[in-house]
Amino acid sequence: MDLLLLLDKAVAALKAPLEEEDREQGWTDDLRREVQEEISFNRSALRRHGLGTVRYLRPRFDEWMDREGVQSGRLRSPVSDVQRSLVDARNAP
């Protein structure tokens, strides 16, 4: 899947208000907003400066969510996909 499209989907998922299930999985409004802003920042940098910029991004979403105690679920999945895709793009030749 296209990296920018993946980032778009994650931002869209994170813009929606939290559901009760999300809160049970450890999400707070502040955390959701902070993660959404960081992914939006990465997306903007890639759009503005090109995909070569990915080598300068240091995604740490998984560490961040682990530290906050976020469990697997509806929001963690797209954020983890973003993490994986950014790391894969950084390591690509």
Structure description:
- The chain is 68% helix and 0% strand.
- It is mostly helical and 93 residues long.
- Helix 1 packs antiparallel against helix 3 (29-49) and helix 1 packs antiparallel against helix 5.
- It is globular and about 40 Å long.
- It starts with a helix and ends with a helix.
Output the keywords:
93 residues; mainly alpha; 5 helices; globular
Number of helices: 5
- Strand percent estimate: under 5%
Low-confidence stretches: none
* Gross morphology: globular
- The radius of gyration computed from the alpha-carbon positions, rounded to a whole number of angstroms, is 13 Å
Class by SSE composition: mainly alpha
H/E element order? HHHHH
Mean pLDDT: 95
Q: How many angstroms separate the termini?
A: 18 Å
Helix content range: 55-70%
Q: For the report, how would you describe the main beta sheet?
A: none
Number of E-type strands = 0
Question: Topology of this protein?
Answer:
Layout: H1 3-15, H2 20-24, H3 29-49, H4 61-68, H5 76-91
Short recap of the structure:
By secondary structure, this protein is an all-alpha fold.
